[in-house]
Structure formats: C-alpha cells, structure tokens
User: Which sequence fits this backbone?
C-alpha cells in the first residue's frame, strides 16, 4: 500500500500521455488508463516544466512528474501543450505601447500566442514582480500575460516600460 | 429564450433559425489568440470559423454533459459524449462566466432538465464606444470618461472654502500689483532723480514709497499665508474623512484581495498631494498668471519692441512642458508605487512580527526591506532629478530673452533712443517673470502628482460596494430569527464555487451546528448570513425577507458574531465589550461579562475593566480574549448568533466555561455554531454536515450517528484523535 503522506513521484517509464479523439489530454498512469487527465503546476512561477501534478478528472492526485523532459517524445509534446492550455500565460515578445487613457492603462502586446491588448485599472494592483526581471500583467477581466525578462526585450519595448516598472 | 451574440453572416446563413446560444471565443482551438464561434440549437452543438467553415459538430443526443473546465487565466469547454470527452472551445479568463453558463445550458438541454436563467453577470461587458472592457459594476467606460472631470471633482472639495479662497486670491492680486510698483519707482528714481542729479523732496518720497510697499507686501503675504494654512488643513481633513468613509463602505471582498495596511499611508499621502495642488496650486496659478499678464502689460507700455524679445523663448517652453507632462505623471506614479510596495512590505512584517521573531528572520526582513528601499531611492532620484533638471533649463531659456533685451536695449540707450531707467525697469520686470516660470515647472510637478493621487482616491471612492444597500430597504424591526437558504451558490473567485446549491430552512430559535472538514465552506456559509458577500445564485431570507432588501445596519443589529480570530480594538476591556452599544452602563457591561464567564478574570486584573488591551488584545490569553468577544456579542443582544470556532483555541476547562457561557447566550436565539470539537455541538437542534461546499447530511447528533455516514466518520476520526491525546496525557 502506498504511503498516503509520501509525495508520489512518477517513474517516467510508467506514464504515457496522449490526446484523445476529442482533443482531451489523457494517458496511462501506473498501468491504468485515464480518458481525462488534468495537469497542475506545483510551482507555476518557479518551475514551469517541473513538479507537475497529474490528476484525474475528479482532481485526485495520481502522481507528480519531476521533470517533463524525462518523458518520451510523444508524452512530452502533449503535456507541454496541455500545460500551455491550462496555464494560459502568453509570453510577451514585444511591448508595442503602454498608454494611459484617463484611469485605464492600455497595453498593446505581441506574445508567443499572437497579438493582444490588455487593460488595467491601475498598475499597482495589476503588475506583479515575482522576482528577477519577471513581470506578470493581469487585466481587468483576469487575463494574464508574462514578461519573462523585461531587460531582455528589444529597445522599443524597454523604452515603453521604463516609466512603468 | 435565446442568448445570442450576433453571428457573422456567413455562419448565420448555415442556420435555419437563430440558434439557442451563440458566442465568440477569444482563443482558437490551438490556444492562440483569435476568434472562433460556438453556436448550438436544440439539435446540435457546433464550432465555426468566422468565414463559415464548420470545425466541429456534436449531436445533442450524443451529448451527456458539458463542463467548463477552468484553468489558470483561461479555460476549456468540454463536452462529454458517448465516445469520451471532447474539447469544444478554448477561451481566456475574461469569458469564463459566459462559457460557464454555456456549459450549464448545454447540460440542461442534454439531460432534458430545466434551463438555467441568465444573469447579467455572465456576460463580459465592453464599452460600446471604444471596445475596452468595463469593470464590474460600472456603467461608464473609464477611457471615454471626461478627462477634465478629475480636476473638477477635486476642486469641489475647495467649494466650502470659496470665500476664504477668494479672499486669499484677492490678496494675491493686490500683492502682485503692489510688487510691480518698486521697479517702476526705481525707473522714476533713475530717470528723474539720479540722472538729472535733481536732489529735492523727490528722493525721500520715492524711498518712503519703496519702504511702504515693502511693509504692505509682508503684511498681505502673512495674512494670505494664514488663510492658506487654514483652508489647507480643513481641506485635507475633509479629504481624509471622505477617503476613510469610502473605505469603510467597501465590502469585505475588496479587502480580501488587498493587503490592508497599505491604506494607512495612502489616506494621508494622497490627500496631502491633492491638498497641495488645490490650495497652493490653485492660488498660485491664478495669482502668477495674473502677474505674468500684468508684467507684460507694463513692459509693453514701456517699450513694446524690446518686450517681444522676452516673448521669444515662450513657445519653446510651452512645447517642452507639454511633452514632459505625461512623463512626469508617470514617474510620480512610479515613485508612488515603489513607496506603496515598501509600505506593503513593512505592514506585512510588522503585522507578523511575532512570526518573524519566532523564526529569527529579522535579517531576511531587513534585506527584503532594503531592496524595496533601493527602488524607492532610485525612483525618487528619477522624478526629482527630472524636475530639478527642468527648472534650470527653463531659466536658461528665459535668460536668453534677457540677454537679447540687454543687447538691443543697451544699444538703444547708447544711441539715446531709450532712457536708462526704462531699460533697468524692463530688466527688473523680466527677472520678476522668472518667479512665475519657476512655478510653471513646480506646478506641473504638483498637478501631476495631485492628479495621480486623485485618480487613486477616486478609484476607491468609485469602487461600488459588492453588497450594495437597496434604495428603500424593507423595515424589519426586531426579527424572529427565521433564516432560509434557497439554492445558494457562492464563490470568492467567480466560477470556483465554495458553497454549492445549498438549501436550508432554520426555524426561529433553532440551534444549527455546522460540521465538516476544514475548507468545507462552513465559515463561508455564515459569512453569507452576515451578508459579507452576496450570493452568486439563489437567495437568503430572514423572516421571509431577502437579505438584499434589508439595510445592512439593520441586519447587523440583529446578528452577533464570535469568531475564532478574535479582534479586540485598542482600548479598554470595557470599551471593547461595549463596542456595539456605546451607551451601555457599567452594570450592562459587567452583566454581559458575567454571562460570558469573563467577569471573574477581568476583576482580578489590576486594572479591572479599565485594562487597556492594546492592539489586537495581545495582553490577554486566547481564552480570555474569546470570552471578552463573547461578552461583546452578548451586549449586542442579537436575534441571530453566529459562533465560528469560538472555542477552538482554548483548553478543555476554559472551553467548558465558554461552552457554559454560550449555552446561556443561545437561549431563544437562532444560532449557527461551528466547532472544532464535535462534542460541543451535541445539543444543537440540528447538525448540518458540509462537504466541499455541499450539504451532505442534516439531522440530530443521534440520527446522524445512526446513519453511519459522513458525520459518523468525522466523529470516529475525532475519537481516535482523542484516544491519542489521552495517551499523551
Ligand atoms: N476570503 C477568501 N478569498 C478566497 N477564498 C477563500 C476566502 N475565504 C475562504 N476561501 C476558500 O473557501 C473555501 C472554504 O473556506 P471556509 O469557508 O473558510 O472553510 P471552513 O470554515 O469550512 O474551514 C476554502 O477552500 C478557502 O480556501
Ligand atoms: Mg472556518
């Protein structure tokens, strides 16, 4: 019997992930097939591809993947995609503009998932600095974008950011 | 009933009649930004590209259920079909309410159940004119809102002091005019007395005139200064009061999401910034502009050609100011934010000072502080540096005008086309222009600081309470205490419900024990009764009246709460007990304390009821604090009593005493009690077992034990625990 108080780290050989016909993330964990699996990042900010909690549709934890890089190619591809779906956090590649119109801040952004625009009521509650040069932007409706390292962006973007970070 | 976002024509053409539901997604199936369209009829669920290409089709008879699975920042609409789950559409968090509703409607259709009703909350709202999102509860789009409104609104605070402000303004005009006299007198002195070497009474008269104007000036400046201080202090008092009452009016949900100590500094610093602009700013601007005009009038009348030279640098300065304006505003805000972060940090570590000390983490806290402090310093230098650089630039540019006048004026004097005195007067007036110019840059500074402060202040004032009072509340008088939950659903985060579809009818005077694992939603349940939060779905009634129709002050008068986390205010024990009834007599206070089993220990304290309990009552033990807060609830004499783990943090003997107090307290009142030790709820009329936000069992202790369900398990687990405790002694 498994120890209930032990973190169950999965053996990478024993988990297989794939995508069902309906586009749902599924897989085999410990020899048992599941037609729907949910992925959770235990450290969504610090370790985006490590310590992934795999849960069944009801939310019960099946195991933890220490590092998805240990998985086979097919599984890796699917879990990466699934993480991207579940943790919708587009990575900003360019800041086109940051404008303040009356009391709304409007950001025009290019991200790895396409162009978008976000609006904030203010900066002090909607910009988070989790550490380093990382910035998390949250808009009025809860949509979030991430700037992994604002110092590493191009000159234009940095210029837009100088007075807001 | 159809819920329709207007479909593009190409897709609409594929339907014979309007579908039941249609909506635009904001993500494509591959998770990239973009749009696709979902639509469904009684027969089928479909997904489309904008150009009418069908991507997905599921027949309603294949559909078992639909679920909106929310991730972080976005979500997925899943359809459970006979062949397994299918991804229908993906969306960002902005649309989760809408797709949550779609899922419910789809499930209802699939299962042939009653269709859910739409509420306005479920649709993301965008400003009709500029397409920016509207925040919850507001109707006006912030972008389209009139820009000048903030200033107008700010100036409203100056209105009650109109007469004083006008007085100060009048004095300022006078001062300005008087200030203009000395250079003119100097001109007269040079041209009519000194140069003609014309000694007579004229010299004495002019010197006396100079002395008199100087005296007049200083008197008027003093009076004006005093008025300024008076109006300023009053204004600031008004502002602080308004900000504070705005804060008090806000609902708990507002404070849940924010660190509260930040507001201490904000109330003061933001109102100071606004005051500075309104008193000093407004008076100065009007005064100084007047002075500029007067100076130019005099200069033009002395020599209009030379005066034009002085005007040359003006356009340049205007342009520079206009360009700098937004930048300065941003930098002020940036600086404010770094201070804000610093304050939050300080507030946090001071509130948790016991934990900090207990773990010996003072140095970590210090290094966190110094990092944030460095940021403040950096931003401070940036903003101060910016405007320190601006003023010299302005004076230099303006100085160029003086040089031009010196050169051209000097030539004219040499060619005897101009009197020396006139040139000197012109130069003197020009120097006086520098004053206002300095104020231009200072003013830009003040105004942008004040505007960004005002923005934040008005944001607080404009935040609608999430639990608004109705316009004409139902009078409830003294209630009987009947409480009913009708299919109540609530989540702190929308669409992550913590309380799910709860129905419960509680008779007047009944005692209900709420049990369940920690995190089951017990505290949330009672928060709903206090109306700290409004239901997302369903309703709660007291004596048959919907909570939302009752004014909150009436409601709270009828409800008394004792929480696990007792909070005592800075003050004496007596003041804390009489918190909700300031006119309570000493006898009332003692009686309440007696019932709460607190009287004895209080009297034994050296200072008795006058013992100051200080911030959060650190000087009392857990059980003592608990009993004081029970006394506070007793004196309140509520019809509905709420006890949330009121005895969780005390030993068994104290618990017994508190329990005794509570037993006396609950008599004749409707009571909701949550207790960690199930034995303390044994005499409840009914026990309600909550599990993950749902009621799983209701009944008396005996009934539930017999049923051998969830309650039974909880009791067993606890018995096991007490056995272990027994071993430990
Ligand atoms: N202010 C809050 N903001 C967000 N979530 C909260 C808040 N208070 C409680 N929760 C969440 O709601 C759930 C139920 O909490 P609660 O009602 O306090 O449980 P209980 O009192 O039964 O232990 C928990 O999952 C908790 O994390
Ligand atoms: Mg609780």
Assistant:
């Amino acid at each position: 019997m498994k120890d209930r108080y032990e973190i169950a780290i999965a053996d990478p050989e024993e988990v297989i992930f794939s995508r069902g016909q309906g586009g749902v993330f599924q897989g085999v964990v410990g020899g048992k097939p599941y037609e729907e699996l949910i992925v959770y990042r235990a450290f969504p900010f610090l370790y985006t591809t490590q310590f992934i909690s795999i849960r069944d549709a009801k939310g019960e934890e099946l195991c933890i993947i220490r590092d998805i890089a240990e998985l086979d190619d097919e599984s890796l591809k699917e879990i990466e995609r699934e993480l991207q779906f579940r943790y919708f956090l587009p990575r900003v590649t360019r800041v086109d503009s940051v404008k303040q119109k009356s009391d709304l801040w409007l950001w025009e952004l290019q991200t790895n998932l396409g162009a978008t625009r976000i609006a904030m009521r203010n900066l002090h509650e909607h910009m988070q600095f989790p550490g380093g040069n990382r910035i998390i932007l949250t808009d009025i409706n809860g949509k979030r974008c991430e700037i992994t390292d604002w110092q590493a962006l191009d000159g234009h973007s940095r210029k837009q950011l100088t007075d807001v970070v | 009933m159809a819920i329709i976002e207007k479909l593009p024509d190409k897709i609409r053409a594929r339907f014979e009649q309007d579908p039941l539901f249609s909506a635009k997604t904001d993500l494509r199936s591959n998770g990239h930004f973009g749009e696709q369209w979902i639509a469904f009829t009684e027969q089928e669920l479909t997904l489309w590209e904008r150009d009418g290409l069908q991507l997905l089709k599921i027949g309603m008879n294949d559909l078992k259920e639909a679920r909106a699975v929310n991730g972080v920042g976005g979500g997925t609409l899943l359809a459970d079909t006979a062949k397994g789950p299918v991804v229908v559409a993906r969306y960002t968090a902005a649309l989760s309410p809408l797709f949550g509703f779609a899922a419910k409607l789809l499930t209802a259709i699939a299962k042939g159940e009653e269709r859910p009703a739409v509420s306005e909350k479920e649709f993301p709202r965008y400003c009709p004119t500029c397409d920016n999102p509207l925040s919850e509860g507001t109707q006006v789009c912030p972008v389209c809102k009139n820009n000048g409104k903030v200033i107008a609104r700010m100036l409203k605070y100056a209105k009650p002091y109109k007469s004083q402000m006008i007085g100060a303004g009048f004095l300022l005009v006078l001062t300005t005019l008087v200030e203009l006299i000395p250079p003119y007198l100097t001109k007269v002195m040079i041209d009519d007395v000194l140069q003609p070497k014309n000694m007579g009474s004229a010299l004495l008269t002019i010197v006396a005139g100079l002395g008199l104007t100087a005296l007049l000036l200083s008197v008027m400046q003093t009076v004006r200064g005093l008025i300024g201080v008076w109006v300023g202090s009053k204004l600031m008092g008004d502002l602080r009061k308004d900000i504070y009452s705005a804060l008090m009016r806000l609902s708990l949900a507002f404070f849940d999401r924010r660190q509260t100590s930040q507001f201490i500094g904000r109330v003061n610093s933001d109102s100071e910034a606004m005051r500075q602009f309104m008193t000093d700013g407004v008076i100065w601007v009007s005064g100084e502009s007047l002075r500029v005009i007067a100076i130019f009038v005099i200069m033009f009348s002395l020599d209009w050609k030379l005066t034009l030279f002085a005007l040359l640098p003006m356009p340049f300065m205007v342009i520079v100011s206009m360009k700098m304006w937004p930048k300065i505003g941003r930098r002020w805000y940036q600086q404010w934010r770094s201070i804000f972060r610093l304050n939050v940090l300080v507030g946090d570590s001071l509130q948790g000072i016991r934990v900090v000390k207990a773990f010996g983490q003072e140095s970590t806290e210090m290094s966190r502080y110094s990092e944030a402090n460095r940021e403040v310093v950096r931003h401070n230098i940036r903003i101060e540096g910016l405007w320190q650089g601006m003023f010299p630039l302005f004076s230099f540019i303006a100085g160029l005008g003086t040089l031009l006048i010196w050169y051209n004026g000097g030539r004219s004097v040499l060619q005897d086309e101009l009197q020396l005195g006139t040139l000197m007067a012109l130069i003197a007036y020009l120097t006086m222009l520098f004053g206002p110019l300095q104020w231009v840059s200072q003013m830009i500074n003040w105004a942008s600081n004040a505007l960004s402060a005002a923005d934040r202040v008005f944001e607080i004032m404009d935040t609608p309470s999430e639990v608004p009072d109705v316009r004409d509340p139902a009078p409830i008088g003294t209630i009987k205490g009947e409480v009913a939950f009708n299919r109540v659903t609530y989540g702190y985060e929308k669409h992550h419900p913590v309380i799910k579809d709860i129905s419960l009818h509680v008779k007047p005077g009944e005692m209900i024990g709420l049990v369940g694992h920690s995190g089951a939603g017990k505290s949330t349940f009672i928060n709903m009764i206090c109306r700290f939060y409004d239901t997302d779905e369903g309703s709660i009634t007291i004596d048959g009246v919907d909570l939302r129709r009752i004014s909150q002050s009436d409601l709270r008068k009828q409800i008394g709460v004792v929480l696990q986390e007792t909070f005592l205010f800075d003050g004496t024990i007596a003041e804390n007990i009489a918190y909700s009834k300031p006119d309570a007599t000493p006898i009332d206070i003692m009686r309440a304390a007696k019932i709460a089993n607190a009287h004895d220990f209080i009297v034994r304290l050296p200072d008795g009821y006058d013992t100051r309990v200080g911030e959060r009552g650190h000087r009392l033990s857990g059980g003592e604090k608990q009993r004081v807060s029970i006394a506070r609830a007793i004196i309140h004499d509520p019809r509905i009593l709420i006890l949330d783990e009121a005895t969780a943090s005390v030993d068994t003997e104290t618990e017994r005493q508190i329990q005794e107090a509570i037993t006396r307290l609950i008599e004749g009142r409707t009571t909701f009690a949550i207790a960690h030790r199930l034995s303390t709820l044994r005499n409840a009329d009914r026990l309600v077992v909550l599990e993950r936000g749902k009621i799983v069992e209701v009944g008396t202790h005996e009934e539930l034990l017999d049923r051998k369900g969830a309650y039974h398990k909880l009791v067993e687990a606890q018995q096991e625990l007490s056995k272990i405790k027994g071993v430990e002694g």
Remarks:
- The CA atoms of residues 16 and 72 of chain A lie 8 Å apart.
- Chain A touches chain B at residues 20-24, 35-36, 38, 44, 81, 84-90, 100-104, 106, 111, 113-116, 119, 121-125, 139-144, 163-165 (CB under 8 Å).
- The first strand of chain A starts at residue 15 and ends at 19.
- The pocket of adenosine-5'-diphosphate (ligand 1) is lined by residues B 256, 492, 498, 516, 518-524 (CB under 6 Å).
